[in-house]
């Protein structure tokens, strides 16, 4: 059996004296895709921040391709190939779209040409400043900018939150294409369970910072009772997934 790309073992972490994650263990294979589900406040973002190295680590370990990175600084984890798109997007408002894309670019398959081919809307807006974009365009740019670092793992924290249905479809299509064609491993948190499950291979559900359920995404997608029990938010189609 091949070594996991990312491995967490008995991770306990949080902020200051507060413990948010408690006893979290998971293996993520290369070319895998994982949905992280759960209600608001259960620890999804904290899990991602812990993987990136931004929380107070109390117990356990994190390994990347077999290397212990538990105490490694966040910027060094990024250099190893862990890319993160935060909920806040955090694009550079005073840089153009193209400058945002190239400021942290690293060699690999994701080039300006590849990004513009995948997201022609960004090509149309390449000379616009970051603060001149709509919310959906900013989200596209945030994902694309992280892709330009050519990560082996892309972590997406609710990338479709608050977006119009047509933008949800575009970003969902991009994520599906990445998973199917690019070889990029993806971890995705998304409030709309059926949408996340339809795009990924495996799923974990968090409650109070602990994994309470894990399964194949296809199996959980058919188990509507489990979705309602653990998350309580389901959608019938991608287009209905936008929040108001």
Keywords summarizing the entry:
alpha/beta; Rossmann fold; 35% helix; six-stranded mixed sheet; disordered C terminus; four-stranded antiparallel sheet; single chain; 244 residues
**Fourth-level CATH superfamily:** P-loop containing nucleotide triphosphate hydrolases
The percent range for helix content is 25-40%
Mean pLDDT across all amino acids: 90
* CATH class descriptor name: Alpha Beta
Structural class: alpha/beta
What spatial form do the alpha-carbon principal axes imply? globular
Biggest pleated-sheet summary: 6 strands, mixed
Q: Please indicate the percent range of residues in DSSP E strands (runs of 2 or more).
A: 25-35%
Radius of gyration: 17 Å
CATH topology heading: Rossmann fold
Distance between the termini: 45 Å
Low-pLDDT stretches are: 234-244
The tally of beta strands, per DSSP, is: 10
Helix and strand element order: EEEHEEHEHHHHEHEHEEHH
- Strand order, biggest sheet? 6-7-8-3-9-10
How many structural units, i.e. domains?
A: 1
Topology:
Blueprint lengths: L5 E10 L2 E11 L4 E5 L6 H9 L3 E9 L2 E2 L5 H7 L1 E4 L11 H6 L9 H7 L1 H5 L10 H13 L5 E5 L7 H18 L2 E5 L3 H7 L2 E6 L2 E7 H6 L1 H7 L14
Parallel strand pairs: 3-8, 3-9, 6-7, 7-8
Antiparallel strand pairs: 1-2, 1-4, 4-5, 9-10
Report on this model:
The chain is built from 10 helices and 10 strands. It has 244 residues and is an alpha/beta fold. The protein has one domain (6-90, 151-236): Rossmann fold (3-Layer(aba) Sandwich). It has a 6-stranded mixed β-sheet with strand order 6-7-8-3-9-10, sandwiched between helices. Strands 2-1-4-5 form a 4-stranded antiparallel β-sheet, covered by helices on one side. Strand 9 (202-207) and strand 10 (210-216) form a beta hairpin. The chain is globular. The model is unreliable at 234-244 (pLDDT under 50).
């Amino acid at each position: 059996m091949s070594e996991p790309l990312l491995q967490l073992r008995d991770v306990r972490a949080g902020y200051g004296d507060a413990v948010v994650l408690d006893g979290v263990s998971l293996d993520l294979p290369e070319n895998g895709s994982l949905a992280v589900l759960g209600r608001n406040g259960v620890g999804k973002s904290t899990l991602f921040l812990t993987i990136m190295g931004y929380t107070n680590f109390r117990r356990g370990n994190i390994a990347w391709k077999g290397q212990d990175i538990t105490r490694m600084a966040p910027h060094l984890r990024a250099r190893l190939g862990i890319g993160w798109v935060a909920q806040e997007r955090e694009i550079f408002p005073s840089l153009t779209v193209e400058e945002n894309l190239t400021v942290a670019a690293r060699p690999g398959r994701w080039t300006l040409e590849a990004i513009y081919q995948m997201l022609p809307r960004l090509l149309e807006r390449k000379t616009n400043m970051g603060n001149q974009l709509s919310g959906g365009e900013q989200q596209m740019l945030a994902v694309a900018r992280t892709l330009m670092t050519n990560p082996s793992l892309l972590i997406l924290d609710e990338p479709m939150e608050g977006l119009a249905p047509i933008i949800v479809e575009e970003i969902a299509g991009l994520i599906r294409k990445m998973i199917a064609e690019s070889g990029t491993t993806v971890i995705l948190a998304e409030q709309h369970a059926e949408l996340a499950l339809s795009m990924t291979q495996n799923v974990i559900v968090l409650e109070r910072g602990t994994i309470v359920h894990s399964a194949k995404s296809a199996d959980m997608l058919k188990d509507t009772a489990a979705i309602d029990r653990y998350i309580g938010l389901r959608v019938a189609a991608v287009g209905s997934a936008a929040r108001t």
